Amino acid sequence: MIRFAALLVTGALGAAFALLPADPRPLSIPAAPADSPLLDSLLHSDARLLPVVNRAKAYELQIIYTQINRDAQLRPTFVQHSFRLDARQYFNPASLVKLPTAVLSLEKLNDLHQPGLTRRSPMQTGTAFRCQTPAPYNPAPDSDRVNTVGNYIKRMLLVSDNQAYNRLYEFLGQGPLNARLAELGFPETRIVRRFAPCDTAANRHTNPLEFRHAATGETVYRQPAAYNAQALTFPLGRITKGRAYQASGRIIPQPYDFTTASYLPLQSVTDLLRLVLFPAAAPAAQRLHLAPDDYAFLRYYLHHTPHSSLYSMYTGSRYFDAYKKYLYYGRRPTTTPEAGLRIYNIVGMSHGYLADVAYFADSTRQTEFMLSAVLYVNQDGIINDGAYEYDSVGLPFLAALGQTIHQYEARRPRPVRALPVDFTTTEVIR
What we know:
430 residues; alpha+beta; 12 helices; 29% helix
């Protein structure tokens, strides 16, 4: 579900870009920070990492490692180390966009202040423009199969379901979604697409929706079809990748155009995960409009595996425990999760890009840290041909990277070696 096909051919994307007006709001893309000597040393300490680290430019490697230190009251401070971090180095964020979409969908439910409207309210999605697809009310006896904001978030966070993302992208609307991210301190980000073959104009149109009361079945909220009248520009300008791309079974011998694709820098999604997991540490202007129960809900599904979540749709063997835990486990079907280790994360895998943004909490060793990484594994330079080195290069590298940092954290001195109960206790299924 994480992989998806190319959405538009280069010519169409180029034409769409040419029609975009100049953005009156200048954006400042942060300059690339200097590499951390500590992280550089750690990356060179493990032979498993060297084939990628020694060719980091070719693999477009970016890494953020955040140490977390707590005081006697368990209040955290964060010390960030980075390697080749550069917001000007575009990568396709793929399913990383599902984290902000999930978070802002819960926010919107709260901000609407509609009696009876919750993440458990059955919802219906209609159609009003090309490339839109319906999702009817689904009064299934299994509550996990009912179409609700909560269930869509579960599907996104547990197995990176693309259709679930599309429904919440449509619930938020392209304009409000990006405006809220800017308010939260992420003006450079762009989330502009469904995971579907829709053109740029169609993605500006979102569907009509209706929600019902979970108990009575009465309509509690209607949302008409919407259109983002303010075309979004793209902070990095024109972006092309590769030497060729595949479309309709043919190889097109020219670079693939990502100009109008979504843009989510590694630092931005790392910071957003931190806002979700450490709300008390966030500046007032970046506080999310979420209740304690919303935070607990997100924590639960960010760290659980498909099986451990007990979500009925994902009990089959197809959804193995390491399904989307690339850092540390490398997505190996036979992996048994390590006792005491929780990994709260969001991943992306598309067009040769492989990314994981994670927080590690180890109750056995009483250690914690954040780790984010992205790399590009497309040796033949052809976009969308499916011939990527995910299994041979990317996933083994991410697994080794997580293990290397985890081992270092186990021996790193810190003022207080303790974790809050939110990250160690057995949770109630939500």
